Automatic annotation (TrEMBL):
PROSITE patterns: ADH_SHORT
Family statement: Belongs to the short-chain dehydrogenases/reductases (SDR) family.
Gene3D superfamilies for this protein: NAD(P)-binding Rossmann-like Domain (3.40.50.720)
Superkingdom of source: Bacteria
Protein name, per record: SDR family oxidoreductase
Keyword Oxidoreductase among UniProt keywords: yes
Ketoreductase domain boundaries: 6-191
Organism per entry: Sphingomonas crocodyli
Length: 248
């Protein structure tokens, strides 16, 4: 019960990695403030978690809503111990082909909302000696073909993580990122089956990951088990970023 008495706000909680993280933290005692744009899915998920979760519908492409969710959490629970910035979208497109509106949308959800939620949460996290975990991506560590906006947003998240970590360490707030490799969630489902299989094939462990395998690392990072860990990024990728790319 590592999260007994803790309040965790998790964005993108209705699906994939966010839902797996909410389930795990709730099982270990956390009260979950579950945020997502997908109202019906979120309601069904919160019902599954019973009295331990509260649903809050927000569109994080809107900066006002990204900040307002923190106020709503405080109004509900009176405090915030853990902010999991997890909601994210991808967008295929090389820079020359990418609609600037799509660039803006990806940056708004994947990077701006992380900044806006974090800045609004920090006074509460300082009071609670809490922490922030952001779901970044190995696409922000290296780069993936045809993902100009996503690579850039996730690289920005990694920079912001380090900045927040050093700026608020003295006030007792830890800030870290977890970078998944290819994970079998609805985010990947729009990809052609042969591409999905290829992701598994090029990964040293020979398979894509499961949402629960990321959730366990997010929960570790957010828990007191990681009490001296801040400003770090943990790649959970079946060995993908350890590989130079040269053939076997
Ligand atoms: P997912 O699509 O299953 O879940 C993402 C959730 O975010 C959804 O419930 C969606 O409704 C919500 N969301 C999308 N736009 C939103 C908005 N504007 N406002 C509020 N909520 C919004 O995807 P996932 O794979 O669980 O992704 C979670 C995080 O993990 C994302 O940040 C993603 O970039 C990152 N990630 C995923 C993978 C992967 O392979 N699945 C790899 C690396 C990083």
């Amino acid at each position: 019960m590592r999260f007994e008495g803790k309040v965790a706000l998790i964005t993108g909680a209705a699906s994939g990695i966010g839902a797996a993280t909410a389930r795990l933290m709730a099982a270990e005692g956390a009260a979950i403030f579950a945020v997502d744009i997908a109202a019906d899915k979120l309601d069904a998920f919160v019902t599954e978690l019973g009295g331990q979760a509260v649903a809050h519908v927000a569109d994080l492409s809107d900066g006002d809503q990204a900040e307002a969710m923190i106020d709503a959490c405080i109004a509900k629970f009176g405090k915030l111990d853990i902010l999991v910035n997890n909601a994210g979208i991808g967008a295929l497109g090389k820079a020359a082909d990418l609609d600037p509106a799509m660039w803006r949308k990806v940056i708004a959800i994947d990077l701006d909302a992380v900044f806006l939620a974090s800045r609004k949460a920090l006074p509460h996290l300082i009071a609670a000696k809490g922490n922030i975990v952001t779901t970044a991506s190995i696409s922000g560590m290296g780069a993936d073909y045809g993902f100009a906006a996503y690579n850039s947003a996730k690289a920005g998240v990694l920079g912001l993580t380090k900045n927040l970590a050093i700026d608020y360490a003295a006030q007792g707030v830890r800030v870290n990122a977890v970078s998944p490799g290819p994970i079998d969630t609805p985010l990947m489902a729009h990809m052609p089956a042969e591409l999905l299989a290829e992701f598994g094939r090029v990964t040293p462990m020979g398979r894509v990951g499961k949402a629960e395998e990321i959730a366990k690392v997010i929960a570790f990072v957010a828990s007191d088990d990681a009490s001296y860990l801040t400003g770090q990024n943990i790649a959970v990728d079946g060995g993908l970023t350890a590989h130079t790319g040269q053939p076997d």
